[in-house]
Input
Amino acid sequence: MPTRTALPQGHKFGSVADPSHLQPGNLKFAPGSIYVWTSKDNAVTNDKSQYVAVKIGLAAGGESAAWEIMQGSRTKLAGDQMIIDMLAVNNCGWSEEYIHTLLREHGHSTLHGHDHKVPERYKHFYSEQAGGNEWFVMTRTMLDKFMARLALKSYEKHGKPDAWTKGWVGETAKNSPVKFRLNAVGQPTADMTGRRGGPIKEQKLKFIWDYRTLTGIAPVGCITTDSQWVATR
Output
C-alpha cells in the first residue's frame, strides 16, 4: 500500500471556486423516468435507522434506456443496488430539477449549505464534498411524501405519460418485449416462449419487474400493472 506524507486535517489547496455553486441539472426535456436508488452497503442506509441515502436522477427514454443508466451506475458500487422508486414522467429534465431543488430547499441534500435536515451523525461522510451532487438523506416516509409531491406537480404541468410504444427490454426485430405471466403456482415468471437469441440474465429481469411495477407502465399483456403487483402511491 502506498504511503504518503499526511496533510493537516481540513487542509485546503487554495481554490477560489464557490463551493456552494451548483451546476445546472441535465435538462433533458423529454419523456423518461426519475429513479431513486441506494446500495446495501451504504453507511446511512445500512445503519438500521429509518434514514436512507439515495441517488435521485433521470433516465430519458423508455425501459431500455433506464436499464442502461442503472447498469452503468452499478459498476461503481461494491454492494447490491437497491431501486427504491421509479416515476415515469413526460418531462424528465423539469422533474429532476424540481425534486432536486425541493429537497435542497428542505435541507436533505448532502451538499453543504443545503444539508440542515441531515442528521449530524451522518455529516462526516460528506465533509470533503467529494461525492456526487444528486445524493439526499431522509427517512423513507419523507422520501415517499416528496416523490408523491413530484408526481402531482409533474402530472399537473406536463400530463401523465402513456405507455411507451418502443424501447422495452428484450424487444428486437425478432423478439417482442419480455412479459411476465403467472406460473402454475401463481408466481410471476418471465415468459421466454419462442424467443430467439441468448437468455436474459436474472438481474435484468429483476430490473424489468421493478421498473414496471413502480412506474405502472408495461407492454400489453404483462401482469406487472395488475393491481396485485403494481405499486401504490
In short: The mean pLDDT is 89.
